[in-house]
Amino acid sequence: MKALLIVDVQNDFCPGGALPAPDGNKIVPVINALMDKFSLIFASKDWHPEETVHFGKWPVHCVRETAGAAFHQDLQAQKIGEILLKGTGNKDDGYSAFEATNIDFKDYLRRHEINNLYICGLTTEYCIKATAVDSQRFGFQTYVVEDAIKGVEQNKGDAEKAIQQMKNEGIQFINSSML
Known about the structure:
Blueprint: E1 2-7, H1 28-35, E2 41-46, E3 82-86, H2 105-111, E4 116-122, H3 124-137, E5 141-150, H4 158-168, E6 172-174
Parallel strand pairs: 1-2, 1-4, 2-3, 4-5, 5-6
Helix pairs in contact: 3-4
């Protein structure tokens, strides 16, 4: 069995947001097309409180119940089965979807006999990488859909370095046309 995980396609990570991935909105049509190929679809959201140590490292972003924390308006969110909320505490960063506080994601995947997890979304060098590495470490065959991810690129080349690190971990990279 396979599932799709859409990571953090939220307004604050898109152009005009507090911590944007350049052209982050341009992957939304690719993700929408991907959703038609999966019967089980998850999405993660950064869901930060107003005050958190996380904001000592980053600009204030994705504060729960704000417009910045909402999914991008063009994302077909009605197709998402479960939303994983992460970074919800005052002392956690919540980079990986496996750190969700409202669902034990690893257990959920195992109970539903999901062996293959396909990952897309934002931000390549942080949340995509952390989620993909956790997925692989927990024994799921992990695929990152390369034309459906974008990095924040705080430092030029960070996203490319993260992709190489994920490949070194055994994570497979595919193009959406391969599905």
